[in-house]
Write a structure and sequence with these properties.
homodimer, Jelly Rolls, 4-stranded antiparallel beta sheet, 8 strands, DNA-binding
Chain lengths: 188, 188
DNA sequence: CGCGCGATTGAGTAATTTCAAATCTAGTGG
DNA sequence: CCACTAGATTTGAAATTACTCAATCGCGCG
Protein backbone atom coordinates (compact mmCIF):
# COMPACT_ATOMS: atom_id res chain seq x y z
CA UNK A 1 0.00 0.00 0.00
CA UNK A 2 2.80 2.36 0.88
CA UNK A 3 4.54 1.30 -2.33
CA UNK A 4 2.44 3.92 -4.08
CA UNK A 5 4.14 6.59 -2.01
CA UNK A 6 7.50 4.92 -2.41
CA UNK A 7 7.23 4.97 -6.18
CA UNK A 8 5.99 8.50 -6.10
CA UNK A 9 8.98 9.71 -4.13
CA UNK A 10 11.42 7.60 -6.09
CA UNK A 11 10.53 9.53 -9.22
CA UNK A 12 12.27 12.53 -7.67
CA UNK A 13 14.71 11.35 -5.00
CA UNK A 14 16.08 7.93 -4.23
CA UNK A 15 15.68 6.60 -0.72
CA UNK A 16 17.07 3.49 0.90
CA UNK A 17 14.64 1.07 2.52
CA UNK A 18 15.44 2.38 5.96
CA UNK A 19 15.14 5.97 4.84
CA UNK A 20 11.75 5.23 3.39
CA UNK A 21 10.65 3.46 6.57
CA UNK A 22 11.70 6.57 8.41
CA UNK A 23 9.69 8.80 6.06
CA UNK A 24 6.66 6.58 6.33
CA UNK A 25 6.71 6.84 10.10
CA UNK A 26 5.70 10.49 9.76
CA UNK A 27 2.46 9.49 8.07
CA UNK A 28 -0.76 8.00 9.31
CA UNK A 29 -3.37 6.15 7.29
CA UNK A 30 -6.99 7.10 6.81
CA UNK A 31 -9.79 5.39 4.96
CA UNK A 32 -12.96 7.13 3.87
CA UNK A 33 -16.11 6.01 2.11
CA UNK A 34 -17.66 7.70 -0.86
CA UNK A 35 -19.44 10.95 0.13
CA UNK A 36 -17.47 11.33 3.35
CA UNK A 37 -15.77 14.62 4.08
CA UNK A 38 -12.04 14.95 4.57
CA UNK A 39 -12.14 18.70 5.20
CA UNK A 40 -15.16 20.86 5.86
CA UNK A 41 -15.39 24.58 5.34
CA UNK A 42 -14.64 26.46 8.53
CA UNK A 43 -12.77 23.65 10.22
CA UNK A 44 -9.11 23.55 11.12
CA UNK A 45 -6.77 21.91 8.61
CA UNK A 46 -3.91 20.11 10.26
CA UNK A 47 -2.93 17.66 7.59
CA UNK A 48 -1.93 17.23 4.03
CA UNK A 49 -3.00 14.08 2.21
CA UNK A 50 -1.49 11.71 -0.30
CA UNK A 51 -4.02 9.64 -2.20
CA UNK A 52 -3.16 5.95 -2.19
CA UNK A 53 -6.41 4.97 -3.89
CA UNK A 54 -9.75 6.55 -4.61
CA UNK A 55 -10.84 9.95 -5.79
CA UNK A 56 -11.66 13.25 -4.10
CA UNK A 57 -12.61 16.77 -4.98
CA UNK A 58 -11.72 20.06 -3.33
CA UNK A 59 -14.42 22.64 -3.86
CA UNK A 60 -15.29 26.16 -2.92
CA UNK A 61 -18.89 27.29 -2.55
CA UNK A 62 -19.37 31.00 -3.13
CA UNK A 63 -21.91 33.38 -1.60
CA UNK A 64 -24.35 32.61 -4.39
CA UNK A 65 -24.23 28.96 -3.35
CA UNK A 66 -22.41 27.81 -6.46
CA UNK A 67 -19.79 25.15 -6.14
CA UNK A 68 -16.48 25.51 -7.98
CA UNK A 69 -13.91 22.78 -8.07
CA UNK A 70 -10.35 23.74 -7.33
CA UNK A 71 -8.92 20.30 -7.83
CA UNK A 72 -9.58 16.64 -8.14
CA UNK A 73 -7.18 14.15 -6.62
CA UNK A 74 -6.70 10.57 -7.56
CA UNK A 75 -4.04 7.93 -6.91
CA UNK A 76 -0.65 9.53 -6.54
CA UNK A 77 -1.89 13.06 -6.01
CA UNK A 78 -1.68 15.32 -3.00
CA UNK A 79 -4.63 17.23 -1.67
CA UNK A 80 -5.49 19.59 1.15
CA UNK A 81 -6.82 23.06 1.74
CA UNK A 82 -3.36 24.52 1.34
CA UNK A 83 -4.34 28.04 2.25
CA UNK A 84 -5.78 26.86 5.54
CA UNK A 85 -2.97 24.37 6.04
CA UNK A 86 -0.11 26.78 5.47
CA UNK A 87 -1.56 29.86 7.08
CA UNK A 88 -3.47 28.06 9.79
CA UNK A 89 -6.76 29.72 9.01
CA UNK A 90 -10.22 28.08 8.89
CA UNK A 91 -10.82 25.95 5.81
CA UNK A 92 -12.43 27.71 2.88
CA UNK A 93 -12.83 24.48 0.96
CA UNK A 94 -14.85 21.33 1.28
CA UNK A 95 -12.93 18.21 0.38
CA UNK A 96 -14.88 15.02 0.01
CA UNK A 97 -14.67 11.62 -1.53
CA UNK A 98 -16.14 10.76 -4.90
CA UNK A 99 -15.12 7.15 -4.33
CA UNK A 100 -13.96 5.05 -1.39
CA UNK A 101 -10.54 6.41 -0.63
CA UNK A 102 -7.34 5.50 1.20
CA UNK A 103 -4.99 8.27 2.24
CA UNK A 104 -1.62 8.79 3.82
CA UNK A 105 -1.76 11.82 6.10
CA UNK A 106 1.03 14.06 7.29
CA UNK A 107 0.56 16.81 9.84
CA UNK A 108 2.15 20.23 9.53
CA UNK A 109 4.47 19.52 12.44
CA UNK A 110 5.53 16.20 11.01
CA UNK A 111 6.14 17.66 7.59
CA UNK A 112 8.20 20.39 9.17
CA UNK A 113 10.21 17.85 11.16
CA UNK A 114 10.61 15.58 8.19
CA UNK A 115 11.91 18.42 6.06
CA UNK A 116 14.30 19.54 8.76
CA UNK A 117 15.56 16.03 9.29
CA UNK A 118 15.83 15.08 5.68
CA UNK A 119 17.24 17.44 3.10
CA UNK A 120 16.24 14.92 0.47
CA UNK A 121 12.60 15.10 1.47
CA UNK A 122 12.66 18.86 1.63
CA UNK A 123 13.96 18.72 -1.91
CA UNK A 124 11.23 16.29 -2.86
CA UNK A 125 8.52 18.56 -1.53
CA UNK A 126 10.05 21.59 -3.22
CA UNK A 127 10.03 19.79 -6.55
CA UNK A 128 6.45 18.65 -6.02
CA UNK A 129 5.10 22.06 -5.20
CA UNK A 130 7.07 23.55 -8.07
CA UNK A 131 5.42 21.31 -10.59
CA UNK A 132 2.06 22.01 -8.99
CA UNK A 133 2.81 25.71 -9.33
CA UNK A 134 3.52 25.35 -13.01
CA UNK A 135 0.40 23.25 -13.55
CA UNK A 136 -1.68 25.95 -11.93
CA UNK A 137 -0.11 28.62 -14.09
CA UNK A 138 -1.20 26.62 -17.09
CA UNK A 139 -4.70 26.41 -15.73
CA UNK A 140 -4.80 30.16 -15.17
CA UNK A 141 -3.64 30.76 -18.74
CA UNK A 142 -6.26 28.35 -19.96
CA UNK A 143 -8.97 30.16 -17.98
CA UNK A 144 -7.81 33.49 -19.35
CA UNK A 145 -7.23 32.67 -22.97
CA UNK A 146 -9.28 29.65 -23.98
CA UNK A 147 -13.03 29.37 -24.23
CA UNK A 148 -14.86 26.71 -22.29
CA UNK A 149 -14.84 24.26 -25.15
CA UNK A 150 -11.05 24.35 -25.60
CA UNK A 151 -10.62 24.01 -21.86
CA UNK A 152 -12.85 20.96 -21.98
CA UNK A 153 -10.92 19.40 -24.82
CA UNK A 154 -7.61 20.17 -23.14
CA UNK A 155 -8.71 18.54 -19.91
CA UNK A 156 -10.09 15.58 -21.79
CA UNK A 157 -6.79 15.06 -23.57
CA UNK A 158 -4.71 15.53 -20.42
CA UNK A 159 -6.73 13.43 -18.02
CA UNK A 160 -8.84 10.98 -19.99
CA UNK A 161 -8.98 8.68 -16.94
CA UNK A 162 -10.75 11.36 -14.97
CA UNK A 163 -13.71 11.47 -17.35
CA UNK A 164 -14.57 7.87 -16.70
CA UNK A 165 -14.85 8.56 -13.01
CA UNK A 166 -16.49 11.95 -12.49
CA UNK A 167 -19.81 13.35 -13.62
CA UNK A 168 -20.00 16.05 -16.24
CA UNK A 169 -21.58 18.32 -13.69
CA UNK A 170 -18.35 18.21 -11.73
CA UNK A 171 -16.22 18.65 -14.83
CA UNK A 172 -18.27 21.76 -15.57
CA UNK A 173 -17.69 23.04 -12.03
CA UNK A 174 -13.98 22.51 -12.58
CA UNK A 175 -13.89 24.26 -15.94
CA UNK A 176 -15.99 27.20 -14.84
CA UNK A 177 -19.03 26.76 -17.05
CA UNK A 178 -22.60 25.73 -16.37
CA UNK A 179 -23.36 22.05 -16.85
CA UNK A 180 -25.87 22.97 -19.55
CA UNK A 181 -23.26 24.81 -21.58
CA UNK A 182 -20.81 21.96 -21.19
CA UNK A 183 -23.46 19.53 -22.27
CA UNK A 184 -24.08 21.54 -25.43
CA UNK A 185 -20.59 21.16 -26.74
CA UNK A 186 -19.44 17.95 -25.11
CA UNK A 187 -21.72 16.00 -27.43
CA UNK A 188 -19.95 17.19 -30.54
CA UNK B 1 21.14 46.85 -3.52
CA UNK B 2 21.39 43.24 -2.49
CA UNK B 3 19.82 44.21 0.82
CA UNK B 4 16.45 43.80 -0.88
CA UNK B 5 17.24 40.13 -1.38
CA UNK B 6 18.73 39.84 2.07
CA UNK B 7 15.58 41.18 3.69
CA UNK B 8 13.46 38.99 1.48
CA UNK B 9 15.28 35.84 2.55
CA UNK B 10 15.47 36.91 6.18
CA UNK B 11 11.69 36.85 6.34
CA UNK B 12 11.90 33.07 6.04
CA UNK B 13 15.36 31.86 7.09
CA UNK B 14 18.14 33.64 8.94
CA UNK B 15 21.55 33.75 7.32
CA UNK B 16 24.85 34.97 8.66
CA UNK B 17 26.72 37.63 6.69
CA UNK B 18 29.05 35.05 5.24
CA UNK B 19 26.23 32.71 4.38
CA UNK B 20 24.46 35.51 2.57
CA UNK B 21 27.63 36.46 0.71
CA UNK B 22 27.82 32.85 -0.35
CA UNK B 23 24.21 32.88 -1.54
CA UNK B 24 24.69 36.12 -3.41
CA UNK B 25 27.62 34.67 -5.30
CA UNK B 26 25.19 32.41 -7.14
CA UNK B 27 23.40 35.41 -8.61
CA UNK B 28 24.28 37.86 -11.34
CA UNK B 29 22.85 41.33 -11.86
CA UNK B 30 20.96 42.60 -14.85
CA UNK B 31 19.55 46.01 -15.68
CA UNK B 32 16.87 46.59 -18.27
CA UNK B 33 15.13 49.67 -19.59
CA UNK B 34 11.40 50.08 -19.94
CA UNK B 35 10.04 48.13 -22.93
CA UNK B 36 13.01 45.75 -23.03
CA UNK B 37 12.39 42.03 -23.07
CA UNK B 38 13.68 39.70 -20.40
CA UNK B 39 12.22 36.57 -22.01
CA UNK B 40 10.80 36.19 -25.47
CA UNK B 41 8.39 33.55 -26.62
CA UNK B 42 10.23 30.62 -28.18
CA UNK B 43 13.58 31.35 -26.58
CA UNK B 44 15.37 29.24 -24.03
CA UNK B 45 14.85 30.15 -20.39
CA UNK B 46 17.93 29.56 -18.29
CA UNK B 47 17.30 31.87 -15.40
CA UNK B 48 14.90 32.86 -12.70
CA UNK B 49 14.76 36.50 -11.66
CA UNK B 50 14.37 38.41 -8.45
CA UNK B 51 13.19 41.98 -8.88
CA UNK B 52 15.34 44.46 -6.99
CA UNK B 53 13.55 47.45 -8.46
CA UNK B 54 11.22 48.17 -11.33
CA UNK B 55 8.20 46.42 -12.75
CA UNK B 56 7.64 43.67 -15.31
CA UNK B 57 4.85 41.64 -16.79
CA UNK B 58 4.75 38.03 -17.96
CA UNK B 59 2.22 37.55 -20.72
CA UNK B 60 0.93 34.90 -23.04
CA UNK B 61 -0.37 35.74 -26.49
CA UNK B 62 -2.88 33.23 -27.81
CA UNK B 63 -3.57 32.14 -31.39
CA UNK B 64 -6.13 34.93 -31.75
CA UNK B 65 -3.39 37.42 -30.97
CA UNK B 66 -4.78 38.41 -27.61
CA UNK B 67 -2.43 39.07 -24.77
CA UNK B 68 -3.17 37.67 -21.31
CA UNK B 69 -1.10 38.55 -18.29
CA UNK B 70 0.00 35.71 -16.09
CA UNK B 71 1.77 37.86 -13.56
CA UNK B 72 3.22 41.21 -12.74
CA UNK B 73 6.42 41.45 -10.74
CA UNK B 74 7.63 44.38 -8.73
CA UNK B 75 10.26 44.87 -6.02
CA UNK B 76 10.70 41.73 -3.99
CA UNK B 77 8.95 39.42 -6.42
CA UNK B 78 10.28 36.53 -8.44
CA UNK B 79 9.54 36.10 -12.10
CA UNK B 80 10.37 33.74 -14.94
CA UNK B 81 8.68 31.50 -17.43
CA UNK B 82 8.58 28.67 -14.93
CA UNK B 83 7.22 26.09 -17.30
CA UNK B 84 10.09 26.70 -19.68
CA UNK B 85 12.57 27.07 -16.84
CA UNK B 86 11.67 23.87 -15.04
CA UNK B 87 10.98 21.66 -18.01
CA UNK B 88 13.58 23.19 -20.29
CA UNK B 89 11.16 23.82 -23.12
CA UNK B 90 10.93 26.93 -25.31
CA UNK B 91 9.36 29.93 -23.61
CA UNK B 92 5.63 30.32 -24.06
CA UNK B 93 5.63 33.72 -22.39
CA UNK B 94 6.94 37.15 -23.14
CA UNK B 95 8.35 38.93 -20.14
CA UNK B 96 9.14 42.59 -20.50
CA UNK B 97 9.71 45.69 -18.46
CA UNK B 98 7.00 48.21 -17.73
CA UNK B 99 9.62 50.36 -16.02
CA UNK B 100 13.40 50.49 -15.83
CA UNK B 101 14.28 47.38 -13.87
CA UNK B 102 17.14 45.87 -11.88
CA UNK B 103 17.24 42.13 -11.40
CA UNK B 104 19.18 39.46 -9.60
CA UNK B 105 19.42 36.38 -11.82
CA UNK B 106 20.02 32.79 -10.87
CA UNK B 107 20.54 30.03 -13.39
CA UNK B 108 18.98 26.60 -13.07
CA UNK B 109 22.35 25.01 -12.39
CA UNK B 110 23.21 27.56 -9.74
CA UNK B 111 19.87 27.20 -8.06
CA UNK B 112 20.34 23.47 -8.06
CA UNK B 113 23.82 23.79 -6.58
CA UNK B 114 22.69 26.35 -4.06
CA UNK B 115 19.86 24.11 -2.90
CA UNK B 116 22.16 21.12 -2.65
CA UNK B 117 24.75 23.07 -0.74
CA UNK B 118 22.38 24.86 1.56
CA UNK B 119 19.48 23.11 3.17
CA UNK B 120 18.35 26.49 4.49
CA UNK B 121 18.06 27.89 0.99
CA UNK B 122 16.26 24.82 -0.26
CA UNK B 123 13.84 25.41 2.58
CA UNK B 124 13.55 29.07 1.62
CA UNK B 125 12.69 28.22 -1.97
CA UNK B 126 10.19 25.59 -0.90
CA UNK B 127 8.41 28.10 1.30
CA UNK B 128 8.42 30.68 -1.47
CA UNK B 129 6.96 28.40 -4.09
CA UNK B 130 4.41 27.13 -1.57
CA UNK B 131 3.06 30.60 -0.94
CA UNK B 132 3.05 31.24 -4.68
CA UNK B 133 1.10 28.02 -5.11
CA UNK B 134 -1.52 29.14 -2.62
CA UNK B 135 -1.76 32.58 -4.19
CA UNK B 136 -2.42 30.98 -7.55
CA UNK B 137 -5.10 28.75 -6.09
CA UNK B 138 -6.81 31.87 -4.85
CA UNK B 139 -6.57 33.39 -8.29
CA UNK B 140 -8.10 30.29 -9.86
CA UNK B 141 -10.96 30.38 -7.38
CA UNK B 142 -11.45 34.03 -8.12
CA UNK B 143 -11.55 33.35 -11.86
CA UNK B 144 -14.04 30.56 -11.32
CA UNK B 145 -16.40 32.08 -8.83
CA UNK B 146 -16.22 35.86 -9.00
CA UNK B 147 -17.33 38.09 -11.83
CA UNK B 148 -14.88 40.50 -13.36
CA UNK B 149 -15.96 43.36 -11.17
CA UNK B 150 -15.30 41.50 -7.92
CA UNK B 151 -11.97 40.35 -9.27
CA UNK B 152 -11.14 43.95 -10.04
CA UNK B 153 -12.08 45.11 -6.56
CA UNK B 154 -10.18 42.26 -4.95
CA UNK B 155 -7.04 43.06 -6.90
CA UNK B 156 -7.44 46.74 -6.12
CA UNK B 157 -7.68 46.02 -2.42
CA UNK B 158 -4.79 43.56 -2.43
CA UNK B 159 -2.33 45.49 -4.56
CA UNK B 160 -3.26 49.17 -4.50
CA UNK B 161 0.35 50.08 -5.36
CA UNK B 162 0.05 48.22 -8.63
CA UNK B 163 -2.77 50.42 -9.88
CA UNK B 164 -0.64 53.52 -9.74
CA UNK B 165 1.91 51.92 -12.00
CA UNK B 166 0.03 49.88 -14.61
CA UNK B 167 -2.47 50.89 -17.26
CA UNK B 168 -6.03 49.68 -16.99
CA UNK B 169 -5.59 47.88 -20.27
CA UNK B 170 -3.01 45.66 -18.59
CA UNK B 171 -5.14 45.19 -15.50
CA UNK B 172 -7.91 44.02 -17.81
CA UNK B 173 -5.53 41.57 -19.47
CA UNK B 174 -4.66 40.22 -16.05
CA UNK B 175 -8.26 39.89 -14.90
CA UNK B 176 -9.45 38.27 -18.09
CA UNK B 177 -11.88 40.91 -19.37
CA UNK B 178 -11.77 43.36 -22.24
CA UNK B 179 -10.54 46.82 -21.40
CA UNK B 180 -13.92 48.24 -22.43
CA UNK B 181 -15.76 46.05 -19.96
CA UNK B 182 -13.33 46.93 -17.23
CA UNK B 183 -13.73 50.58 -18.03
CA UNK B 184 -17.49 50.31 -17.65
CA UNK B 185 -17.35 49.24 -14.05
CA UNK B 186 -14.05 50.68 -12.87
CA UNK B 187 -15.59 54.14 -12.99
CA UNK B 188 -18.19 53.33 -10.39
C1' DC C 1 -0.87 73.52 -31.23
C1' DG C 2 -1.30 69.02 -32.57
C1' DC C 3 0.05 64.19 -32.02
C1' DG C 4 -0.46 59.82 -29.74
C1' DC C 5 -1.75 56.83 -26.19
C1' DG C 6 -4.93 55.37 -22.95
C1' DA C 7 -9.57 55.52 -21.31
C1' DT C 8 -14.36 55.93 -22.14
C1' DT C 9 -18.84 55.52 -24.39
C1' DG C 10 -22.32 53.69 -27.69
C1' DA C 11 -24.55 50.23 -30.45
C1' DG C 12 -24.99 45.87 -32.33
C1' DT C 13 -23.60 41.00 -31.91
C1' DA C 14 -22.17 36.72 -29.92
C1' DA C 15 -21.81 33.67 -26.17
C1' DT C 16 -23.31 31.98 -21.75
C1' DT C 17 -26.53 31.65 -18.11
C1' DT C 18 -30.88 30.69 -16.12
C1' DC C 19 -35.00 28.30 -15.57
C1' DA C 20 -37.91 24.73 -16.99
C1' DA C 21 -39.01 20.54 -18.99
C1' DA C 22 -37.94 16.26 -21.11
C1' DT C 23 -34.88 12.26 -21.42
C1' DC C 24 -31.80 8.94 -20.09
C1' DT C 25 -29.44 5.68 -16.81
C1' DA C 26 -28.23 2.80 -13.03
C1' DG C 27 -29.63 0.62 -9.07
C1' DT C 28 -33.58 -1.35 -6.09
C1' DG C 29 -37.22 -4.14 -4.81
C1' DG C 30 -41.18 -6.84 -6.20
C1' DC D 1 -37.57 -9.69 -15.71
C1' DC D 2 -39.93 -5.50 -15.03
C1' DA D 3 -41.44 -1.30 -12.89
C1' DC D 4 -39.94 2.52 -10.26
C1' DT D 5 -37.12 6.14 -8.46
C1' DA D 6 -33.22 9.33 -7.92
C1' DG D 7 -29.71 11.45 -10.10
C1' DA D 8 -27.48 12.97 -14.13
C1' DT D 9 -27.78 14.70 -18.74
C1' DT D 10 -29.75 16.93 -22.47
C1' DT D 11 -32.65 20.26 -24.84
C1' DG D 12 -35.33 24.54 -25.50
C1' DA D 13 -36.14 29.41 -25.16
C1' DA D 14 -35.65 33.77 -22.94
C1' DA D 15 -32.70 36.85 -20.50
C1' DT D 16 -28.32 38.45 -19.27
C1' DT D 17 -23.65 39.48 -19.80
C1' DA D 18 -19.55 40.42 -22.10
C1' DC D 19 -17.44 41.16 -26.46
C1' DT D 20 -16.28 43.63 -30.75
C1' DC D 21 -15.83 47.55 -33.47
C1' DA D 22 -16.02 52.29 -33.91
C1' DA D 23 -16.02 56.87 -32.44
C1' DT D 24 -14.96 60.23 -28.96
C1' DC D 25 -12.68 62.19 -25.10
C1' DG D 26 -8.69 63.66 -22.14
C1' DC D 27 -4.15 64.54 -21.17
C1' DG D 28 0.89 64.89 -21.36
C1' DC D 29 4.72 65.91 -24.30
C1' DG D 30 7.39 67.56 -28.04
Amino acid sequence: MSTVLRQHIAAIVSLTDTEFEQVLSYFTTKKLKKHQYLVQEGSEVTQEYFVVSGLLKAAYTNEAGKEHILQFAMEDWWISDYLAYLQQTPAQLNINCLEDTTLLCISIENKKKLCETSHKMEHFFRMKVSSGFVAQQQRILSLLSNDAQSRYELLLSQYPRLFQRVSKTLIAAYLGVSRETLSRFSGK
